[in-house]
Amino acid sequence: MAVSVPEATNEQDLQQHRQKVEFLRNVLSLDDTAYDKVIRKIESFQVAVPSWALGTGGTRFGRFPAGGEPRTLEEKIEDVGLIHQATRATNSISLHIPWDIPKDATSILELLRENELIIDSVNSNTFQDQADQKYSYKFGSLCHTDDRIRKQAVDHNIEVVEHGIRLNSKVLTVWLADGSNFPGQHHFRKAYARTLDSLQQIYKAMPGDWNMLIEYKPYEPGFYSTVIPDWGTSYQMSQACGDRANVLVDLGHHLPNTNIEQIVARLLHFGRLGGFHFNGSHYGDDDLTTGSIKPYQLFLIFNELVAGANDRQVRNPAVAYMIDASHNIKDPIEDLINSLENIRSAYAKALLVNVETLEHAQHENDVVLCEQILQAAFQTDVRPLLAEARLRTGGSLDPIGYFRSQKIREKLIARRGKKSVATGL
Amino acid sequence: MAVSVPEATNEQDLQQHRQKVEFLRNVLSLDDTAYDKVIRKIESFQVAVPSWALGTGGTRFGRFPAGGEPRTLEEKIEDVGLIHQATRATNSISLHIPWDIPKDATSILELLRENELIIDSVNSNTFQDQADQKYSYKFGSLCHTDDRIRKQAVDHNIEVVEHGIRLNSKVLTVWLADGSNFPGQHHFRKAYARTLDSLQQIYKAMPGDWNMLIEYKPYEPGFYSTVIPDWGTSYQMSQACGDRANVLVDLGHHLPNTNIEQIVARLLHFGRLGGFHFNGSHYGDDDLTTGSIKPYQLFLIFNELVAGANDRQVRNPAVAYMIDASHNIKDPIEDLINSLENIRSAYAKALLVNVETLEHAQHENDVVLCEQILQAAFQTDVRPLLAEARLRTGGSLDPIGYFRSQKIREKLIARRGKKSVATGL
Amino acid sequence: MAVSVPEATNEQDLQQHRQKVEFLRNVLSLDDTAYDKVIRKIESFQVAVPSWALGTGGTRFGRFPAGGEPRTLEEKIEDVGLIHQATRATNSISLHIPWDIPKDATSILELLRENELIIDSVNSNTFQDQADQKYSYKFGSLCHTDDRIRKQAVDHNIEVVEHGIRLNSKVLTVWLADGSNFPGQHHFRKAYARTLDSLQQIYKAMPGDWNMLIEYKPYEPGFYSTVIPDWGTSYQMSQACGDRANVLVDLGHHLPNTNIEQIVARLLHFGRLGGFHFNGSHYGDDDLTTGSIKPYQLFLIFNELVAGANDRQVRNPAVAYMIDASHNIKDPIEDLINSLENIRSAYAKALLVNVETLEHAQHENDVVLCEQILQAAFQTDVRPLLAEARLRTGGSLDPIGYFRSQKIREKLIARRGKKSVATGL
Amino acid sequence: MAVSVPEATNEQDLQQHRQKVEFLRNVLSLDDTAYDKVIRKIESFQVAVPSWALGTGGTRFGRFPAGGEPRTLEEKIEDVGLIHQATRATNSISLHIPWDIPKDATSILELLRENELIIDSVNSNTFQDQADQKYSYKFGSLCHTDDRIRKQAVDHNIEVVEHGIRLNSKVLTVWLADGSNFPGQHHFRKAYARTLDSLQQIYKAMPGDWNMLIEYKPYEPGFYSTVIPDWGTSYQMSQACGDRANVLVDLGHHLPNTNIEQIVARLLHFGRLGGFHFNGSHYGDDDLTTGSIKPYQLFLIFNELVAGANDRQVRNPAVAYMIDASHNIKDPIEDLINSLENIRSAYAKALLVNVETLEHAQHENDVVLCEQILQAAFQTDVRPLLAEARLRTGGSLDPIGYFRSQKIREKLIARRGKKSVATGL
After folding, report:
1. What would the pLDDT profile of B328-339 be if each residue is shown by its tens digit?
2. pLDDT in tens, D225-259
3. Which of C182, C197, C365 is most worth mutating to test chain B (most B CB atoms within 10 A of its CB)?
4. Which residues contact D34 (CB under 8 A, 6 or more apart)?
5. Residue D345 touches chain B, beta carbons under 8 Å
6. Which of D62, D129, D293 is facing C127, going by the closest CB pair?
7. SS3 assignment, position A67
8. What are phi and psi of A25, to 5 degrees?
9. How far apart are alpha carbons A224 and A191 in whole angstroms?
10. How far apart are CA B422 and CA B410, in angstroms?
11. Is A166 an interface residue toward C (CB < 8 Å)?
12. Is the pTM here over 0.95, yes or no?
């Protein structure tokens, strides 16, 4: 597979694209330098795709497979490669252990290189029982009351790090299903203390150049409480672990009506925003296409990220951007392309915000002007800029169109079968 | 298995029970007639247990089986029989088709009779694809844009009714997963019209003494919209079907902060409350033990039910009471016993409300007195009344204690194995 | 005051506007006919401004007046005239009785005519006690247990209609604060019946060419229940009143996560969507600028409205569009201009949806394509179209800029004073 | 006024009370020592009543006064004295400045002594503009962009402390309305930094034996963001201020579905739970009677408080318990009596939890048993214990009955008038 799409596939749309992007430059009054700067920023904004999201997802009520799903880590890399080829927006993969333990790290690294991909973070799994597992996580893992089970879970995380080292990853993401379903089940304070102790053990076992991301989630699968329900808890735990432990924000992991962009700003202010799990949400952890439900909220989040990145007073480590979604009814590859484009759209719009004017209006409490500045950026149709960034880097002007016209799903089905099942599903 | 628990198992607690119940009679100033009336009402309040909830439940993240789970319809009936023996509170089973298609209706009816059980409602399943199914329900069933798929779903429902007829059921419950995940996916008005048309076909195919219950749910598995999201839609559809179509209220199927007791009152007022799915909920359709999270809300719901039942102006059909929960971490049998007791507790408290005084206080807008009347009933410890009702009907004074002391789970595991899996899970 | 803005005020921006709108025409491939059709549709989309929203709003915690607020109905008309002059998007006023009882209907009608305005709906107020009122609405109005108080509330509504008749209105909007704060306070079924009886009395008293809009709201000021909490209740009540009673949807009157666009589609399907109260909401009935929080949701609502308007199978009466917001920190006039522009933006984007292609994709369950069609319309920057519509009808290319550069607030303060208070606040 | 209710008023109910409480002792198997210990704990549990909550409250839509409302601080003390006389459950008052600035501290202290009351915390008000105020808080107070306004707000808080010193208070409660209504209005990071700087100034100005309580609230009056929206932010700010700054939890200040009891446990674990504002909530900051909507949640919160108080590993300062509610439709005095009794009920039930058995069941993950232990305590009817505690300390067996039979409201109206208005309303 070539890392760039064939030029011919863009030919038809090229002229119209040139017109659109030229016009937008004029509207935005961007000189050559400013224009190139924006395009290059968009080009370099890359989001990792998770290895567990290349097959059809499901709910507890059922799963409706699409066909042609990747059966192995190698095939998952191939799919991410296809997405990256068309979008040039995802140069990395988040890996899920034990679903995607590489048998031969060297050949995996070679395959990644061929696809211009790297391994982003590695993710542990203590929310399910594996066939060969000694103790069950039914009542928790890192928080468990039984020391042996906690040790098993800690050891699993350390093993995940070891797999990651072999693949040149530097980041461990910890999401815990640990929680309770009924009042009284958990001793809240002890569960917190045990979990923190476990995390500290894992943290200490990581190499000195590794980072730990601690995810929070208010409910599901725990339906009464979770051990790490909110950013406040994640933040406390990351502080108690050390400088290289930070908070991971998953957009679907909040109670109704939460102002997520403010949480992002808070964590940037504290220098503890470690990473993102992007997805779309209407009700809970719906794991829909990013930007499909609340595109303005996504823009406001990126507005904080861009402002934070440009503010010298913010001392935050590099943020790990990942998608974490479930493709229940869309083709997984198309769904991921949708997400990647929506994320870049929000990012590009945030780049257009006139920060200086905004801060002045904020200082003067000119509320109408503050909002107009954000709205002006949000209402701008940035699709030509995204297309230009793809074009310059060898991607497709129309990634979904490319995927469909090249009959990629049909070819994958032909090779992998109609009823293939991705590992971990 | 005997239908009553051995008297000896109650002996130890008997004296203390007598004291407690006697005291409570005094506190409540109940003469013999009033006392007997209350106990008899409690005795006769029966709630169906669903055949699909006797095994360990799970979430999309995993399932942690308990062992000794029933493998067949016969074993499910055995489990419900055990629960009924100890609680005398569940004389019926809701059946799920195709998970529990009886091979031999006659022998099933005989087994039911032995356990003093009947079949309550039968439930169709168009939210999953079965192995031998021609068309997929990935994009809906009764709402589907493709006539052939709609026909398949309608036919399935009619088949479910036929199974039900053989088992002396009279009620079809329809819960639809039909919905959408993304804006634009559904043509809302057409999806409504197609669904209604399908329901009307099913309604017409039912025998004249059958009832249809139409369930609503705002989200999950559809994470953008569902075709029947709220009571208003269920009610419209039931009206458009006919007199024997009514609304089913599942306690977990509401948006945050919904006043469910008012919906119950509304449907009683309209004479369209057909049935209940009981469960407990903190966040969404959590399917926890009924009464485990918001016991006061459960009481307020029963307050409406009891008031409605005693009000001649209310012309509502008999309400079908069922549990619909998922036993993810508790032993399924213990969990169901918990639910049954919590439901009867709410019912018994509602029986203690002084309706006449309450209505007078309501008329006078004496808000403090209105609330005191409800609170007086709710704060009363009715556990002795529930125990007395169980005792009089051959149940256990302490059903959970009975289950544990008789080592019932251990015996079930010995017979069925540690890794048995209930059909449908 | 002139009804058009001076041409000179648009001169500076004119050339750039011409370029932008011309380019957009090309992008959208609109020929002259199609282009004119879109612009004319936008021009003719008018939204009423409420007479109660021209002063600074507040919360129960406080109010921070802006100065120059209109003190009389005449001054309120003047303010709406100013907004209409700049935006050409609001040709009518919703009137609040008793806050804005006209002393001399003839002169008010003349003043309206001068400002090219009409009276849209009239709104009753039974949620507050007026100084001269015989009975208190503390415990309800149309739902009250006391017949005398119900009669007073019914009579007030009839009086409101009479005022409306004199001002050529044809619509009565009924929003009820009737509800309860504590369990037990209301007899739900009786409160429903009494309220319906009251509404029926009012309905019968209306002239044959009048319409009644019945608003729903789940909470506030009632914090346990309201008599008309949801669309289902409004719809039932409107059906029970008659053909000219319909449901009013206020965007802020929903529980968290409600899919409002589906409710809109439902009511259109039933032919009972009577009107809209536009505002923005993050948490509850926040009464913010329309479109300021969830612009995509606003677009999706308009997508239903436009689709419904173009569908012959939909037999819905003309919908009354009104703003109902509270201007707590923005200048009220600027805030209303913001809302009007955001509403028209959502409308214009909805006009760009390719309905035919969408319906085909819906029928084929091509979910990705369905969403792309909506997203393509939403992401289009329609500001040039809105500007063109304003320009053609005598409005300003930049209404907020016009308001500020003309120092309108300063002039209003000079005339009305810094501490003027609008009637009703 | 006597500090005890006349013995005669309890005579009628005395015999029945003795029976009930004796029976309950038997059921609970409490020997004399254990029984006295429980009763004494209940007796000593005191909750402050706020000076601002003795008049009728209201919403932004209106207020319906009850009559006889206290017009001065002296009359407010009188009302709290009456409540304390009947309930013996509120020995202190939270004071609101500037609404209740004492003219003569000495005479106020004397009046408090006569009523066996003390001043609990003092509360600043920077959410409203006072008539004589130089700068407006329209756009914030402690977070304001203008240094002069921030200084004014800091100075006000220091002045509040000075008033408190004169009244022997030791606690300053800071609730901020600071927030924003629209995206872009606030620079989140700068607003946080400015607010913290202001709080640190106030903290430094407090005497060394004073404590500061920092309240959080997610929305209202800010409808897009607030500066201190959640416990995480309060906690960070309290840490950054110093050891005597702690978090105040108001039960109504949470997003939908929040597990508040876990937050309480978290703050106890961190040793930073400073105080409580008790009230009841169905939707948002509804400020209803405490325990009127979710009594089980209230019990679960007290379960954490009692467990924390008995755990030597918890090093938390003394918690300040206050009611903060709005009496919109109930008589304010009756409403406060309701709240005080419901709070004590939750507390008494929490005292009955068998902590040792619970912790053992938690350690064994016996989820059913854990829940049964809590449920056994919750279902116990503790009203006789509360009555006994009141009786022993000179209160009334039936406080609401006492208030009504003594015609206290009628007497207050006779003295204060039908249309009196409490300061601050």
Report:
1. 999 999 999 999
2. 999 999 999 999 999 999 999 999 999 999 999 99
3. C365
4. none
5. yes
6. D62
7. coil
8. -55, -45
9. 14
10. 17
11. no
12. yes
